[in-house]
């Protein structure tokens, strides 16, 4: 199989030339024949049906009619126009042109059969069609162009320079006539037969020139399956290579640390989900392969206790463990929480952040290297070259999407073999996205809350209800509770009339004056020390109200805080709203989230607010978020490279994605070297994919 023909520069295609080639490269990224053939239509105009004039309806749909132009006349005066009488066996209608009349008058052949296409108008009991597309029936029947007209992606610049949809369509026809013999099969025979897939050449022909809706559907299915299949094949291969090539430390012992804590000091009974996840982690740690697992769990689902139990398994096997968090506040919180839990075990735990004093650092470095220090909690400071472990066996990374790939890989090199890695996130990743983006990681999900936790009540209120909201805050503070009030902006922006933080702080101070009320303020422009001071006042209960920007989104744990008020809630994304809501509901008391907005709301904002008030399920929220925002924005996946999809859509085509995943993982499990005769084509495609690093630059 020789893919070189399709790598021919687009300049060489008949009808392109250097100027058009430059435009196609700049505007649509089309460099080669291959790129053009994989420029898939956005939509199709259905030209499978021919109407008679008597069948026309008074609607705004495009129709095509076969008939003859029997007469032409120019109507002068205001709105000068050329009018043709167009007849078929069932009746007559008018065709109208307001411009280009001279050229049209000269080119139209009277009493010759045409196919006309366009939108109709209805006036005074008869139909007319302004500026119809016209084609002689003889040419129409010879054309490779299908009855389903493709509409290709375009830009204003292309249209202005004369590269219209019709031009792209013509170029595509030219390319197909040249390339037919160079379009080879890309999937194995068993897969093709099992799924009854359309052959590759036929699929490409029918995606550009479908003769019917059924042919188009089969072509789309085939090409979507192929795109998903090769993405999943990459992930499955990576996952297998990881497990077979990257050796891990086998943690065979479940010993004193784990058993003593689990049997005697566990503060509460684990949920079924926590037990299931722990079992999955234990199985990974006990194998000879390095663990590479993603632990997803909604805010408050109990990931920390699972992380601690995993660390205790490392300690039972003579290894050290570390936990890395994205912010100092979060790492301090983890540290205090774990120290409290580990008190009965007499386990050595230290905290390392940017604020750690030099004298304390020296002790930590020394104890890490001689093995005295068993568990280290910290921020990016853990990645510094000076931080050397005696034998790091388990690295836990919290909110991993906030760390870059290079940063995370530094942890791998803290030992001879890479440590086991457990990545934790409270940002629920939709199943569809997890399969595509994190497909090479093993995924565990904690999908139930600890018993006794009350569901947070969420309501939407307009600015006009503010006084009632203030009264509610007073009632909650009287009960001894604390309140968060979160704003989207720090300084007022002229372009936006949203309440900003400083303005809000002043009005809150007026409503809740000293000495009866104490207020903390926290935002991203404050110095770290000032921010921490204010946070600590709130955590200790010295202030009742925390006015803040989204810096409190991750990781502040104040069980006594029971009310979260989000100002200008329409400004926030769904996942951010859900994260903010998760700051309350951490104690046994009933908690509330109040979403404040103006009356002016877009339809997306309404959907977000309705979703938040309807459900507390982070995974359901993440699915809605994915539909609203698309996969590119969520959890920083635009860097993953896995989502530059040409034809598949991981939301709409979820069913095809699942089928492609099961086939790809099946092939890798059954024949990891692609050595079987039937898999030679897959072997070739995989080699091309690795070479070109882009699925559609080689799938042909």
UniProtKB/TrEMBL annotation:
It catalyses: ATP + H2O = ADP + phosphate + H(+); Couples ATP hydrolysis with the unwinding of duplex DNA by translocating in the 3'-5' direction. Residues 465-632 form the Helicase C-terminal domain. The keyword Cell cycle does not apply. Its EC number is 5.6.2.4. SUPFAM superfamilies: Nucleic acid-binding proteins (SSF50249), P-loop containing nucleoside triphosphate hydrolases (SSF52540). CDD domains: DEXHc_RecG, RecG_wedge_OBF. It is an enzyme of class 5 (isomerase). InterPro entries: ATP-dep_DNA_helicase_RecG, DEAD/DEAH_box_helicase_dom, Helicase_ATP-bd, Helicase_C-like, NA-bd_OB-fold, P-loop_NTPase, RecG/Mfd, RecG_dom3_C. Keywords: ATP-binding, DNA damage, DNA recombination, DNA repair, DNA-binding, Helicase, Hydrolase, Isomerase, Nucleotide-binding. Residues 284-446 form the Helicase ATP-binding domain. GO terms for molecular function: DNA helicase activity; hydrolase activity. Plays a critical role in recombination and DNA repair. Helps process Holliday junction intermediates to mature products by catalyzing branch migration. Has replication fork regression activity, unwinds stalled or blocked replication forks to make a HJ that can be resolved. Has a DNA unwinding activity characteristic of a DNA helicase with 3'-5' polarity. Belongs to the helicase family. RecG subfamily. This is ATP-dependent DNA helicase RecG. It comes from Dokdonia ponticola.
């Amino acid at each position: 199989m020789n893919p070189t023909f399709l790598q021919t520069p687009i300049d060489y295609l008949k009808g392109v030339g250097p100027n058009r080639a430059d435009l196609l490269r700049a505007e649509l990224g089309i460099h080669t024949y291959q790129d053009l053939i994989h420029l898939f239509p956005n939509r199709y105009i259905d030209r499978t049906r021919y109407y008679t004039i008597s069948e026309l309806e008074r609607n705004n749909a495009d129709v095509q009619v076969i008939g003859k132009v029997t007469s032409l006349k120019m109507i002068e005066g205001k709105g000068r126009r050329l009018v043709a009488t167009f007849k078929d066996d069932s009746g007559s209608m008018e065709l109208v042109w307001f411009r280009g009349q001279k050229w049209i008058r000269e080119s139209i052949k009277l009493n010759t059969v045409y196919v006309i296409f366009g939108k109709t108008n209805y006036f005074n009991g008869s139909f007319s069609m302004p500026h119809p597309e016209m084609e002689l029936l003889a040419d129409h029947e010879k054309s490779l162009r299908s009855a389903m007209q493709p509409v290709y992606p375009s830009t204003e610049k292309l249209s202005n320079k004369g590269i219209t949809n019709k031009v792209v369509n013509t170029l595509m026809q030219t390319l197909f006539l040249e390339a037919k013999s160079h379009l080879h099969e890309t999937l194995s025979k068993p897969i093709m037969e099992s799924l009854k897939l359309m052959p590759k050449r036929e699929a490409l022909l029918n995606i550009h020139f479908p003769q019917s809706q059924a042919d188009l559907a089969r072509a789309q299915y085939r090409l979507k399956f192929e795109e998903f299949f090769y993405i999943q094949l990459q992930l499955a291969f990576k996952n297998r290579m990881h497990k077979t090539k990257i050796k891990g430390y086998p943690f065979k012992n479940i010993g004193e640390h784990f058993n003593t804590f689990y049997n005697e000091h566990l503060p509460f009974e684990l949920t079924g989900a926590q037990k299931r996840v722990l079992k999955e982690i234990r199985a990974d740690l006990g194998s000879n392969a390095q663990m590479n697992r993603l632990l997803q769990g909604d805010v408050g689902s109990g990931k920390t206790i699972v992380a601690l139990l995993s660390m205790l398994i490392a300690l039972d096997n003579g290894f050290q463990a570390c936990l890395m968090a994205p912010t100092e506040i979060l790492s301090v919180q983890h540290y205090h929480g774990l120290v409290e839990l580990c008190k009965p075990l007499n386990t050595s735990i230290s905290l390392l952040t940017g604020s750690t004093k030099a004298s304390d650092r020296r002790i930590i470095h020394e104890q890490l290297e001689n093995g005295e220090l068993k568990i280290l909690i910290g921020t990016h400071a853990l990645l510094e070259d000076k931080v050397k472990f005696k034998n790091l066996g388990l690295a836990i990374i919290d909110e991993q999407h906030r760390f870059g790939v290079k940063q995370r890989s530094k942890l791998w090199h803290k030992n001879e073999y890479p440590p086991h890695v457990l990545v934790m996130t409270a940002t629920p990743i939709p199943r569809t996205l997890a399969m595509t983006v994190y497909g090479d990681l093993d995924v565990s999900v904690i999908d139930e809350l600890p018993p006794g936790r009350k569901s947070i009540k969420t309501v939407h209120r307009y600015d006009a209800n503010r006084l009632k909201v203030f009264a509610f805050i007073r009632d909650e503070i009287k009960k001894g509770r604390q309140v968060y009030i979160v704003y989207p902006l720090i300084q007022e922006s002229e372009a936006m009339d949203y309440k900003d933080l400083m303005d809000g702080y002043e009005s809150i101070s007026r409503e809740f004056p000293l000495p009866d009320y104490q207020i903390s303020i926290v935002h991203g422009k404050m110095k770290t020390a000032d921010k921490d001071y204010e946070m600590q006042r709130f955590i200790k209960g010295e202030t009742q109200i925390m006015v803040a920007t989204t810096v409190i989104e991750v990781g502040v744990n104040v069980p006594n805080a029971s009310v979260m008020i989000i100002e200008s809630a329409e400004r926030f994304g769904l996942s951010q709203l859900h994260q903010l809501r998760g700051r309350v509901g951490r104690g046994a008391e009933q908690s509330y989230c109040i979403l404040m907005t103006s009356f002016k709301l877009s339809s997306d904002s309404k959907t977000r607010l309705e979703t938040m008030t309807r459900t507390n399920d982070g995974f359901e929220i993440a699915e809605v978020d994915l539909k609203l925002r698309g996969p590119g924005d969520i959890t920083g996946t635009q860097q993953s490279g896995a989502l530059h999809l040409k034809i598949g859509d991981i939301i709409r085509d979820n069913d095809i994605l699942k089928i492609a995943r099961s086939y790809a993982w099946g092939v890798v499990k059954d024949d990891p070297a692609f050595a079987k005769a039937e898999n030679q084509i897959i072997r070739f495609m995989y080699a091309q994919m690795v070479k070109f690093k882009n699925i559609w630059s080689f799938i042909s």
